Amino acid sequence: MVKKRKGVLLTFCCVLLLSIMAVGCGGGGQSGSNEETGNEEITLELWTIALQPTFNDYFNALIADYESSHPNVRIEWKDYPYDAITDKLLTSIASGSSPDVVNLNTEFASQMGSKGAVVDMNEYLNDEQKGAYFDGIFNSTVIDGKAYALPWYTGTEVLFINTKLAKEAGLDPSNPPTTREELAEWGRQVKEKTGKAGYAQQLVSKLFPIEGIPILTEDKTAAAFNTPEAVAMINNMKQLMDEGVILKEDADFTKQIQYYSGEQTAFQLGGPTFINFIKTSAPDVYKNTIAVPLPTGQGDLRLSNSMNLVVPSKSEHPEEAVQFAAFVTNAENQTAFSKEANTLPSTKASTQDPFFSATDDSLEAQAKVVSAQSLDKATDYMVGVPNAKDVNSAIARGLQNILLNGQDVQQTLDAAEQEVNGILQQ
Questions:
Q1: If DSSP codes are grouped into helix, strand and coil, which group holds residue 251?
Q2: 34 has pLDDT over 60
Q3: Domain boundary residue among 379, 400, 416?
Q4: What is the CATH number of the domain that holds 408?
């Protein structure tokens, strides 16, 4: 799910403050955190995002299982709303009351990692533990060789098609588009025959790597997106918006749901969680929807949208915290959670379970199977990018200025490149 960008400046300021504090305080009270604890009982505080009360039974059983095999460890589980956890985390660390294991998305996990605010998992995990995850997903939070998070539940995008609108446009849903060019042609036909748009999208930086345009140089020290190929991509997108194939709007996830539910768009590019919303808001549209593999651009990427577990540097028990995070995200527990939550695992062994290949022809099963088939190719498009949140924001503003406000393509790309380079030097 796409996080609203309001509060980005405040969050960035908090991260900078945290970075300064970390340098000034030298890591707080964790100097003895790797000592043998013997029989001393320790408490690890786990924070998750929006999982209570739906998954209380699962987590209570998971925690009880861990505590039974680690008699000196107690787990205290707290759950917070999506929009609250980052600010709450920064505040708690600054006040000296850091949690031990925290659920964050990849973007913010990378942001925290680039500021030295979370531990390097490599210091506490063996090769077998690290090798359990899909390489592209695990490497999404590796910066300069340091692994700042363990991947947890994830998802890859699929293409949802409103079969009613597609058929009204003379299209065959059983032979769906496989490339972005074909998807654009489908959108044109939908617009011509029904007056509806093809799809809505958010103007974010992932639009570049989808078309094979890298956001940063290979060493992650400078912007790399200001290219003739980027100009051509943006001009093509502008034309599609002018034609009504893509809605001329920066449509966040909530707006995309509204447009698809109201049959203002015929297609939706999104993860399986999208189903939960249309099933409730538009049951008739849900019944007419199918899920097929996502059409690919020049980059031929399968982008993941992962949740992760991190261990803040201020944790008093980093080794025990990392081992608990590894337990939560191991193949057995990820498989079990996926069955409970209809998510996808980030562990290789999990996808061998028949659950991820079996289908009953429901929309949920279609999306699950299609998504699971792409996990071995999945990666976060901002792999290892320092200050990922701020880089994303700079590029998004540039796209908005060009596509919505009519600013010059090349001049705006030049300005965005300069802004991103400045961010990377911070």
A1: coil
A2: no
A3: 379
A4: 3.40.190.10
